[in-house]
C-alpha cells in the first residue's frame, strides 16, 4: 500500500513547480545575503562586509524609509480592517442596493495601481485639482495633499485604502456570511439589539476574516511600492519614501550591492513583524 | 417611518459611492476626450469639443504602435503565466495535501515564506541573466509563476482537503495511476478554485508594474503598465493621452469584472478565509 | 513500477514541451535581441557588404528628432549602412537601462548618453571603445574632450551644441516693471521683490519634476569656481565639501532664500516642467532657472512668445565676476563589444563634422555654440540663445561641476527639493548632499573615499 501511496502521490508532481520556485525565488533570496555585503556591478563584485548596511542605517535619506514604511503599513492596515468590517456588516444586511454597492466598492481592486496613482495625484493638485476645487466651493482651503510634508504620506495611504478596501470588504462579507444563523437566533431570544449583535457575535466570529485582512494588508503595506512610485516617486524630497522605493532608487543608481542590502533589510523587517503576527493571530483563533 | 429611514440610508450610501468611487473614473473619462491644452487644466467639465477618437488613434500609433505591442505582450504574459501556474500549482497542491511526510513542514514553511518575503530583486536579475532569461518575456513569465506559486498552491491545498480520499481510492482500485488520477479525476474536480485563481491572477499579472519594471526594462518589450509609466515621462506631459491610455488599459479588467463579477466575490470568499 | 516511471517521464516531457513552446513564443517577442547584428562578420571596413548598425537614444522628442536627422543624412551618404534606432526613457530610468544593458552585455553598437559624471559612472574602460586616436578628434573643440574622457582616453563625440544653465526671464514683465538684467544676486533679489509686489510669481518652481529643482545649485558653479578655483579637484579628492566650503554652501543658501522670501509659486511642488515653461511663456511667472535645452520646446509650444523670453547667467555676489555655467551635450559612444566597429566609427565621424552640425540644426536649433570647429550658429536662433553668446565671446564661461568632477550624488534632486521647499535649511541640505556624494564615490570605488 505504501508504494501505491508513493506512486499515486509521487513527488514528481511537485518537481516542475519546485524547480521554478527554487531557481527564481529561493536561490536569489539566499544569494541576496551574500551580495548585500558586496560592491557589485552584476559582472563582478568586491566583498565589503557590512558597509552597505551601515550606509543604509546612517544615511537619513535611506533610514527614513523604516519609519515611513511602518506608518504606511499600520495606517492602511488599520483603516482596511475598520472600514472593511463596517462595510462588510452593511453589505450583509438587508439593503436593496447591496449588489450594486458590493460591485462598486470592489471595482477599484481590479484597476491598475499606476492608473489609480496617476489619476489621484492629478486630482490632488493643490490649486487646480478636483478635490481642492470642490473644497473651495464649500469654503474650505484644501491642503497641498502630496506637497505638504506632514500629510503627503497619509494622502498616499488614503488612496491605497480606497483601492484595497474592496478586497477587505469581500473577505469580511464571506466571514460574516459563514457565521451560523443559530447565533443570531439565540441573541434574538435573549433580546439583544443590533449593537449586541455587532459586538458579541459579528466581531468575535468573523475573527478568521479579520486575521486574513490584517495579514494581507499589513504585509502588502510593508512591501508597497507601485502606488508611491506613481504618485510621488518618494517626494517631496524623501518624505514619502518607503523601503521598497528606496531599493528601487539604489538599483536605478547602479548600486546593486546597496539595493540588495535594502532588500535584505526589507526581508528582515517583514519577517520580524509578519511571522510573529501570523503565529499570534493563528494561536488566538484556536482559543475561540 | 422605518421605510423612509431605510430609503434615506440607501440613497445616502449610493450618493457616497458616487462621490468616492465614481468621480475618479469620471475624471479620467472626461479628460481623455479633451485636447492637450484643455486636459492640462485638470477640470471635471465635459470636453468642449470631444476628440476621443483622435486621442485613441494617437495613443495607439505612438512610438511605433507601442501600445499594441504592449497589449500583445501583456496578453501572452498573462495567459502563459496562468496556464503554467494552474497546471503546476494544482499538481503541487494535490501532492502536498495528500502526502504528508517528514518533508511536509519544510514545504509548508517554504510556501508561507513565499507569501511573506519580498523577492530579492537584483540577485534575481543576476540569476535570470545567467540563464539568458533577463529581459525576455519567458523570463518574466517564470517570475510571475514563481511569485504566484505560494498563493495558488495554498488555494489548491485548501480545496483538495474538501475532496474525499475515497475518490482517489476508487480510482486506484480501478487501476488508475497517479497521472490518470490527477488529470482525469482530480483536476476537473478542482475547477471552482481554478476559476478563482484564473480571475485573481489575471488581474494581478495584467496589472503588474513592479516586475516588468525590473525584469523587462527597455521600450521594446513593454507591458501595458509600462506604457502608462512611459507616457508620464519627464518632458512630454500630455494629460489627455495619458488618460486615454488609462482608459484603454482599464478595458480588459472591466470586461473581466462585468463577466465574472459574482464569481469573483464568491470565489474569493471561498478561498481567502480558508487559506 | 516500470510503467509508472515511464509515465512520470512522459509527464516531465510534457512539461518540457510546454515550456519549450513558451520559449519560442517569448523569442518572437524579444525583437530587440534578434536582428540587430544581421551583418555578423561583415566588419573590417568592407564597404560592399550591407551593415546594420543599432543605435540607442533617449525618448525625449528632441533627442529622437535629432537622432533621426543624423540617421537619415548618414544613410544617404553611406547607402550600405542601415541604422536601426531604439529608444529608452530619459532620467534615472534611462540611466538604469543603460547600466543594466551594459552589465548584461546587451548594448547597441552606438549609444547616446550623457557626458560628465554620469558617463564616468558607466565604467568607460570596460564598456566603451577608445576613440582617442581617431582622425575626427581634430574636429572637436578641446574643452569637450575631458567630459567624455576616462584615464586620459577619449570615448565620445558630442551629439549637439553646448547648453547653458541659468535664468530664463520674461522680457515683457521686465519692461513693464522697468527692470534691468541683474548682474549680482542682490540685484536679482531686488527685482524679485518688485515682481512680487506686482502680484506675479517672481520665480517658477516645478518641483513635481524634481530634477528641475537642482538648477539654482548647479548653475551657481561659475560663481563657486570664480571664488575657489580648486574646488572641483578638492571635491573629487574628498578634500572639500559643499557644507564646509562657504562659496559652495552659498549655492544652497540662494535656493533657500528664494523660498524664505516667498518668491516661488505656491503650487511649486505640484508643478511639472511643462507647466513651468507655460507659466513663463504666459507671464504667470517672471523667472525660471533652467537649462537652455528647454529652448526647442519653447519654440515648438509657444512660437508667439519665444521672442519675449530672455536669458541671463545666475548672478553671484561680485559684479565683476559674472559668468555662465555651461553644460556639455550628451555624447555618442561605441559599445566595446560591437561587431560593427568601422560603421560605428563612420557614424560618429559624421556627427563630428560641420556637415553633421548642419543636419542637426535643421531639426533642432542650437542651444549654444557647437563643439565642432568651424561650425556656425544659424542666425535665426531665438533671443534667449543670442543672450547667451556674449558670455561665450568674452570667455566668461565655466563647465558645470558634473563635467569637471566624476562625483555627483544621485539624490541631489531630492535634496534640492527639500531645500527649495523649506523642508531643510541650506546647511543641512549641503551636509546631506555631501553624504550622498560619499555614498556614490564609495559605490564607484573611487580613490580617497
From TrEMBL, chain A:
PROSITE patterns: ABC_TM1. The keyword Hydrolase does not apply. GO terms for biological process: transmembrane transport. It comes from Paenibacillus algorifonticola. Keywords: Cell membrane, Membrane, Transmembrane, Transmembrane helix, Transport. GO terms for cellular component: plasma membrane. Coiled coil: none annotated. It is a multi-pass membrane protein. The chain crosses the membrane at residues 12-35, 70-92, 104-124, 151-177, 198-221, 255-278. InterPro entries: ABC_transporter_permease, MetI-like, MetI-like_sf. This is Raffinose/stachyose/melibiose transport system permease protein.
UniProtKB/TrEMBL annotation, chain B:
Keywords: Cell membrane, Membrane, Transmembrane, Transmembrane helix, Transport. GO terms for biological process: transmembrane transport. InterPro entries: MetI-like, MetI-like_sf. It is a multi-pass membrane protein. Residues 71-260 form the ABC transmembrane type-1 domain. One of its GO terms (cellular component) is plasma membrane. It is found in: Cell membrane. This is Raffinose/stachyose/melibiose transport system permease protein. The lineage of its organism: Bacteria, Bacillati, Bacillota, Bacilli, Bacillales.
From TrEMBL, chain C:
Keywords: Signal. Residues 27-46 are annotated as: Disordered. This is Raffinose/stachyose/melibiose transport system substrate-binding protein. Residues 27-40 have a biased composition (Low complexity). InterPro entries: Bact_solute-bd_prot1 (IPR050490), SBP (IPR006059). Residues 1-23 form the signal peptide. It holds the Pfam family SBP_bac_1. It comes from the Bacteria.
Amino acid at each position: 500500500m505504501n508504494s501505491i501511496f508513493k506512486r499515486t502521490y509521487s513527488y514528481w508532481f511537485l518537481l516542475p513547480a519546485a524547480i521554478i520556485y527554487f531557481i527564481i525565488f529561493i536561490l536569489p533570496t539566499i544569494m541576496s545575503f551574500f551580495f548585500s555585503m558586496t560592491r557589485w556591478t552584476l559582472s563582478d563584485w568586491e566583498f565589503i562586509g557590512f558597509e552597505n548596511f551601515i550606509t543604509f542605517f546612517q544615511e537619513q535619506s535611506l533610514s527614513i524609509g523604516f519609519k515611513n514604511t511602518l506608518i504606511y503599513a499600520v495606517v492602511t492596515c488599520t483603516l482596511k480592517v475598520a472600514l472593511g468590517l463596517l462595510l462588510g456588516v452593511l453589505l450583509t444586511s438587508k439593503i436593496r442596493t447591496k449588489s450594486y454597492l458590493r460591485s462598486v466598492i470592489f471595482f477599484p481592486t481590479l484597476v491598475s495601481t499606476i492608473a489609480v496613482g496617476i489619476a489621484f495625484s492629478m486630482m490632488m493638485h493643490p490649486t487646480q485639482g478636483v478635490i481642492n476645487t470642490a473644497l473651495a466651493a464649500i469654503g474650505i482651503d484644501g491642503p497641498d495633499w502630496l506637497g505638504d510634508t506632514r500629510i503627503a504620506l497619509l494622502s498616499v495611504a488614503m488612496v491605497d485604502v480606497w483601492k484595497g478596501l474592496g478586497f477587505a470588504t469581500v473577505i469580511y462579507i464571506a466571514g460574516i456570511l459563514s457565521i451560523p444563523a443559530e447565533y443570531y437566533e439565540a441573541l434574538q431570544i435573549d433580546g439583544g439589539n443590533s449593537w449586541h449583535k455587532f459586538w458579541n457575535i459579528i466581531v468575535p466570529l468573523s475573527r478568521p476574516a479579520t486575521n486574513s485582512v490584517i495579514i494581507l494588508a499589513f504585509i502588502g503595506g510593508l512591501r508597497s511600492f507601485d502606488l508611491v512610485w506613481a504618485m510621488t516617486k518618494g517626494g517631496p524630497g524623501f518624505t514619502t519614501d518607503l523601503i521598497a522605493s528606496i531599493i528601487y532608487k539604489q538599483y536605478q543608481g547602479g548600486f546593486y550591492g546597496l539595493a540588495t542590502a535594502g532588500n535584505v533589510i526589507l526581508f528582515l523587517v517583514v519577517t520580524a513583524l509578519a511571522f510573529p503576527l501570523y503565529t499570534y493571530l493563528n494561536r488566538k483563533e484556536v482559543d475561540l | 417611518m422605518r421605510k423612509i429611514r431605510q430609503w434615506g440610508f440607501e440613497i445616502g450610501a449610493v450618493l457616497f459611492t458616487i462621490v468616492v468611487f465614481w468621480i475618479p473614473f469620471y475624471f479620467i473619462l472626461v479628460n481623455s476626450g479633451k485636447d492637450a491644452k484643455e486636459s492640462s487644466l485638470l477640470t471635471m467639465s465635459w470636453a468642449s469639443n470631444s476628440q476621443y477618437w483622435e486621442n485613441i488613434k494617437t495613443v495607439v500609433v505612438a512610438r511605433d504602435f507601442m501600445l499594441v505591442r504592449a497589449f500583445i505582450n501583456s496578453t501572452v504574459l498573462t495567459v502563459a503565466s496562468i496556464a503554467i501556474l494552474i497546471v503546476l500549482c494544482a499538481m503541487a497542491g494535490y501532492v502536498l495535501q495528500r502526502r504528508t511526510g517528514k518533508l511536509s513542514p519544510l514545504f509548508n514553511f517554504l510556501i508561507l515564506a513565499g507569501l511573506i518575503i519580498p523577492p530579492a530583486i537584483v540577485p534575481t536579475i543576476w540569476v535570470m541573466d545567467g540563464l539568458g532569461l533577463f529581459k525576455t518575456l519567458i523570463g518574466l513569465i517564470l517570475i510571475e509563476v514563481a511569485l504566484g506559486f505560494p498563493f495558488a498552491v495554498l488555494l489548491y491545498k485548501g480545496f483538495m482537503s474538501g475532496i474525499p480520499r475515497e475518490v482517489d481510492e476508487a480510482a486506484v482500485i480501478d487501476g488508475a495511476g497517479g497521472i490518470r488520477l490527477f488529470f482525469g479525476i482530480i483536476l476537473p474536480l478542482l475547477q471552482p478554485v481554478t476559476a478563482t485563481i484564473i480571475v485573481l491572477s489575471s488581474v494581478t499579472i495584467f496589472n503588474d508594474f513592479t516586475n516588468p519594471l525590473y525584469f523587462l526594462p527597455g521600450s521594446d518589450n513593454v507591458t501595458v503598465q509600462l506604457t502608462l509609466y512611459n507616457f508620464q515621462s519627464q518632458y512630454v506631459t500630455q494629460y489627455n493621452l495619458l488618460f486615454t491610455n488609462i482608459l484603454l488599459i482599464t478595458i480588459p479588467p472591466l470586461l473581466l469584472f462585468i463577466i465574472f463579477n459574482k464569481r469573483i466575490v464568491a470565489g474569493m470568499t471561498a478561498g481567502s478565509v480558508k487559506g | 513500477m516500470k510503467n509508472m516511471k515511464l509515465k512520470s517521464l512522459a509527464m516531465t516531457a510534457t512539461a518540457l514541451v510546454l515550456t519549450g513552446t513558451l520559449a519560442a513564443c517569448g523569442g518572437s517577442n524579444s525583437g530587440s535581441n534578434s536582428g540587430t547584428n544581421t551583418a555578423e562578420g561583415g566588419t573590417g571596413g568592407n564597404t560592399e557588404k550591407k551593415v546594420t548598425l543599432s543605435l540607442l537614444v533617449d525618448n525625449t522628442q528632441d533627442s529622437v528628432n535629432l537622432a533621426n536627422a543624423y540617421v537619415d543624412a548618414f544613410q544617404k551618404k553611406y547607402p550600405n549602412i542601415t541604422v536601426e534606432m531604439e529608444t529608452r526613457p530619459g532620467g534615472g530610468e534611462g540611466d538604469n537601462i543603460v547600466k543594466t544593458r551594459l552589465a548584461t552585455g546587451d548594448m547597441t553598437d552606438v549609444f547616446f548618453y550623457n557626458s560628465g559624471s554620469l558617463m564616468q559612472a558607466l565604467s568607460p574602460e570596460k564598456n566603451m571603445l577608445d576613440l582617442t586616436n581617431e582622425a575626427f578628434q581634430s574636429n572637436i573643440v578641446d574643452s569637450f574632450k575631458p567630459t567624455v574622457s576616462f584615464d586620459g582616453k577619449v570615448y565620445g563625440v558630442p551629439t549637439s551644441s553646448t547648453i547653458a544653465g541659468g535664468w530664463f526671464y520674461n522680457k515683457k514683465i521686465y519692461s513693464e516693471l522697468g527692470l534691468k538684467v541683474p548682474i549680482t544676486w542682490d540685484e536679482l533679489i531686488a527685482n524679485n521683490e518688485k515682481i512680487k509686489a506686482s502680484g506675479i510669481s517672481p520665480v517658477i518652481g516645478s518641483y513635481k519634476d524634481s530634477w528641475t529643482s537642482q538648477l539654482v545649485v548647479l548653475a551657481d558653479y561659475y560663481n563657486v569656481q570664480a571664488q575657489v578655483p580648486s574646488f572641483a579637484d578638492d571635491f573629487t579628492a574628498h578634500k572639500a565639501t559643499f557644507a564646509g566650503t562657504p562659496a559652495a554652501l552659498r549655492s544652497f543658501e540662494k535656493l533657500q532664500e528664494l523660498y524664505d522670501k516667498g518668491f516661488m509659486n505656491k503650487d511649486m511642488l505640484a508643478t511639472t516642467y511643462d507647466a513651468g515653461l507655460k507659466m513663463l511663456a504666459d507671464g504667470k511667472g517672471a523667472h525660471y532657472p533652467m537649462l537652455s535645452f528647454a529652448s526647442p520646446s519653447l519654440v515648438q509650444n509657444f512660437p508667439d512668445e519665444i521672442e519675449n523670453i530672455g536669458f541671463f547667467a545666475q548672478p553671484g555676489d561680485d559684479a565683476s565676476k559674472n559668468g555662465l555655467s555651461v553644460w556639455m551635450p550628451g555624447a555618442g559612444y561605441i559599445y566595446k563589444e560591437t561587431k560593427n566597429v568601422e560603421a560605428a566609427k563612420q557614424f560618429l565621424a559624421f556627427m563630428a563634422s560641420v556637415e553633421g552640425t548642419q543636419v542637426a540644426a535643421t531639426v533642432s536649433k542650437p542651444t549654444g555654440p557647437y563643439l565642432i570647429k568651424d561650425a556656425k550658429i544659424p542666425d535665426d536662433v531665438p533671443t534667449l540663445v543670442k543672450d547667451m553668446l556674449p558670455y561665450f565671446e568674452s570667455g566668461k564661461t565655466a563647465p558645470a561641476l558634473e563635467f569637471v568632477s566624476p562625483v555627483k550624488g544621485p539624490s541631489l534632486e531630492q535634496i534640492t527639493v527639500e531645500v527649495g521647499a523649506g523642508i531643510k535649511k541650506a546647511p543641512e541640505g549641503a551636509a546631506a548632499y555631501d553624504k550622498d556624494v560619499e555614498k556614490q564615490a564609495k559605490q564607484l570605488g573611487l580613490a580617497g573615499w
